[in-house]
Amino acid sequence: MRRVVLAACLAATMLAAATALAVDLPGLRGPTPIGETKESAQIAREINDDARRSRNYPEQPPVIPHSIRGYEVSLNANRCLSCHGRRMTEMSQAPMISVTHFMDRDDQILATVSARRYFCTQCHVPQHEAKPLVPNGFTDIDTLIERQRKTLGTAGTGARQ
Amino acid sequence: MIRRLWRFLQPYWLTLIRPSTSLSLGLLVVCGFIAGVIFWGGFNTALELTNTERFCVSCHEMRDNVFAELKDTIHYTNRSGVRATCPDCHVPHNWTDKIARKMQASKEVWGKIFGTINTREKFVAMRLELAQHEWVRLKANNSLECRNCHSADSMDLTKQSERAAIMHSRHLFPGEKTCIDCHKGIAHRLPNMAGVPGWN
């Protein structure tokens, strides 16, 4: 009996939570009813200025600052590596893929790109001139440290640089 | 055997080489001219008919493989609505070169009849060889078919991305490289590129 009551309570809570979420987060399709087709937004332009973006955290895979339309990355060919590959950078003057891409999972450095790092767009993505679909409150670590330093009123906690 | 054939053909041949006794030279010339126009026009019309996207895609080998791949690319659909169809890139525009290519294409008719690439697997297995034919051809003629539309003279570098402008002025304009050297697989999927220069 107790179990049934517990389950009922849980279900009720979940239902309430779901209702609350449904109100707060209508999903990417917005308030359009299920039965109707939402008018599609214009496809955003791809950024193609070749300017490097700063990374939000050190492990962030750098984003691609150019168009990659039609670039084939498959078992047969890797278009990215024809500029960013180790032997190609002199000709292309593009940044070489980092040495981590040559490592297997035991950190052994291989002669060529490790199979697990071969499909570039799994991590690296081109950018578009588009508004974010949902707000993003991400703050990077330096900003946080800076903020804390200001509130504590101390200079040089040794956390930076 | 040959003698019997000759005996059979002899009267026709003699008729053919005997000067006409009843028809005037003028009539013969006019008739010859009209027949010439019809034959030549017919020949060229038939030739141009084989130079259309519709003709190429009438074979399932082309429709299901290379044409399907072309559809995603900028040469098929783009902002200005100009389309490069199959012959724009694969058949030379210059008449003599075109005829030479058309004669070469008899090999493709052979392939069609005997089903050289009539399944996806056969096509994929032959893809490297087929692609190499095109790379060799375009390399040899300095990417002529590309340049039929994309001329280096009309290229406005300021309208290109900085990277493209640098690459073109460093490698293309001095004639060090030709279009196909860097733009392989621009309109179709690539074969296995292991060992192809410029590809890792």
What does this structure look like?
The complex is a heterodimer of chains A (161) and B (200). Chain A has helices at 2-24, 81-84, 89-92, 141-152. Chain A is 27% helix and 0% strand. Chain A has a domain at 45-132: Flavocytochrome C3, Chain A (Flavocytochrome C3, Chain A, domain 2, Orthogonal Bundle). The mean pLDDT of chain A is 84. Chain A contains four helices and no strands. Chain A is extended and about 70 Å long. With 200 residues, chain B is mainly α. Chain B has a domain at 57-153 and 182-189. Chain B has helices spanning 2-17, 25-49, 53-57, 60-70, 86-90, 95-104, 106-114, 120-140, 144-147, 162-172, 179-182. Chain B is elongated and about 75 Å long. The relative contact order of chain B is 0.07. The model of chain B has no long low-confidence stretch (mean pLDDT 92). Chain A binds chain B through residues 48-50, 66-67, 69-70, 72, 74-79, 81-82, 85-88, 92-93, 112-113, and chain B through 72-74, 161-163, 166-167, 185-186, 189-193, 198-200.
Overview features:
heterodimer; A: 161 residues; mainly alpha; Flavocytochrome C3, Chain A, domain 2; 27% helix; B: 200 residues
In summary, what is this structure?
The complex is a heterodimer of chains A (161) and B (200). With 161 residues, chain A is mostly helical.
> Describe the biggest sheet of chain A?
none
Mean pLDDT of chain B: 92
What is the chains' assembly state? heterodimer
The CATH architecture name of the domain at 45-132 in chain A reads: Orthogonal Bundle
Tell me the name of the CATH class of the domain at 45-132 in chain A.
Answer: Mainly Alpha
Average pLDDT, all residues of chain A: 84
In percent, how helical is the residue content of chain B? Answer: 55-70%
Query: Uncertain segments of chain B of ≥5 residues (pLDDT<50)?
Result: none
List the helices and strands and how they pair.
The complex is a heterodimer of chains A (161) and B (200).
Chain A: H1 2-24, H2 81-84, H3 89-92, H4 141-152
Chain B: H1 2-17, H2 25-49, H3 53-57, H4 60-70, H5 86-90, H6 95-104, H7 106-114, H8 120-140, H9 144-147, H10 162-172, H11 179-182
